[in-house]
């Protein structure tokens, strides 16, 4: 695999607009009204789609290819954790620990650096992700994850989904920056018999650490390799001292090969992403 240098996110229209929401309808929070309507229109197909589109594996592992890649020295990704009502830091850490096996393989460790309370403000998945995305990355955060609890409405929706084929969303990561996500931390519906909170956490961590696509493990290996390589090079070049930030595990912008190299870039790009275009990002 050839080594690639980091690229800044380019200007112009959001390069990921055509791919927007690719990862968002996974079978759980209730899906948004539009998704729910589609579920009612295709009752016979939704149970199959929920299993296929919502599988908690990123794809079929290619161990020979993976083992041929030098993932470099160990790196730590600093994770700021938000907790819904009724959840404790221990609930989050037990789920985050599901990454430990992958951490040893990629030499990429996830380190919770803070725990903060945040009450869930929406019922549908789109509102939850909007709430999560409204929080900028802080100076100590490389990524942000929100663990969501269940309520009576979720249970009722889960029961209705059995007969009506309504989709559910158990976890989600933002498309523009792959830095903000959430996981439903408690079981309450039949869907979670197939996808446990631990499975979903590992799945969403793959997305947060640079892998946007399902069933493309070679691409996932390459992206993790390139992000780790970029961070190491940026540290050696003194980039983070120049921009006045602590070292940052980079990310990709909107499903492209362009990298966002600092928290300031991520926060700026996130704000601009909803507009008609984005100005060029500079270090």
What does this structure look like?
This protein has 283 residues and is α/β, with parallel strands linked by helices. It has a domain at 24-208: Collagenase (Catalytic Domain). Helices cover 37% and strands 14% of the residues. It is built from eleven helices and nine strands. It has helices at residues 33-41, 46-53, 63-67, 89-96, 100-106, 125-133, 152-164, 197-208, 217-236, 239-243, 263-272, and strands at 29-30, 75-83, 108-117, 143-148, 168-169, 171-173, 180-184, 251-252, 259-260. A hairpin with a 6-residue loop joins strand 8 and strand 9 (259-260).
Brief description of this entry?
The chain has 283 residues and is an alpha/beta fold. The protein is built from eleven helices and nine strands. The strands form three sheets. The protein has a five-stranded mixed sheet with strand order 3-2-4-7-6, with helices on both faces.
Q: Based on the coordinates given, report the CATH architecture of the domain at 24-208.
A: 3-Layer(aba) Sandwich
| Assembly state (oligomeric) | single chain
Give the strand order, joined by hyphens, for the main sheet: 3-2-4-7-6
Could you tell me the number of beta strands?
9
> Would you give the CATH topology of the domain at 24-208?
Collagenase (Catalytic Domain)
What percent strand? 5-15%
Helix content: 25-40%
Spatial separation of the terminal alpha carbons = 27 Å
Secondary-structure content class: alpha/beta
């Amino acid at each position: 695999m050839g080594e690639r240098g980091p690229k800044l996110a380019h200007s112009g229209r959001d390069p990921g607009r055509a791919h927007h929401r690719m990862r968002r309808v996974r079978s759980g929070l209730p899906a948004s009204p539009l998704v729910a309507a589609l579920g009612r229109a295709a009752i016979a197909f939704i149970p199959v789609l929920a299993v296929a589109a919502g599988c908690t594996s990123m794809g079929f592992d290619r161990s020979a290819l993976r083992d041929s890649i030098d993932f470099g020295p160990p790196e730590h990704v600093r994770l700021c954790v938000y907790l819904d009502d009724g959840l404790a830091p221990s609930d989050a850490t037990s789920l985050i620990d599901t990454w430990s096996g992958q951490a040893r393989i990629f030499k990429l460790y996830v380190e919770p650096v803070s725990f903060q309370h945040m009450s869930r403000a929406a019922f549908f998945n789109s509102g939850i992700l909007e709430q999560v995305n409204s929080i900028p990355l802080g100076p100590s955060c490389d990524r942000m994850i929100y663990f969501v609890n269940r309520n009576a409405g979720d249970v009722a929706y889960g029961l209705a989904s059995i007969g009506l084929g309504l989709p559910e969303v158990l976890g989600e990561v933002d498309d523009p920056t792959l830095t903000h996500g959430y996981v439903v931390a408690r079981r309450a519906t039949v869907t979670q018999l197939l996808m446990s909170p631990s499975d979903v956490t590992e799945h969403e961590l793959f997305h947060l650490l640079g892998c946007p696509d399902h069933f493309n493990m070679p691409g996932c290996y390459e992206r993790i390799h390139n992000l780790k390589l970029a961070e190491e090079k940026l540290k050696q070049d003194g980039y983070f001292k120049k921009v006045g930030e602590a070292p940052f595990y980079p990310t990709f912008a909107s499903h492209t090969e362009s990298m966002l190299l600092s928290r300031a870039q991520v926060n700026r790009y996130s704000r601009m992403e909803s507009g008609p275009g984005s100005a060029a990002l500079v270090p």
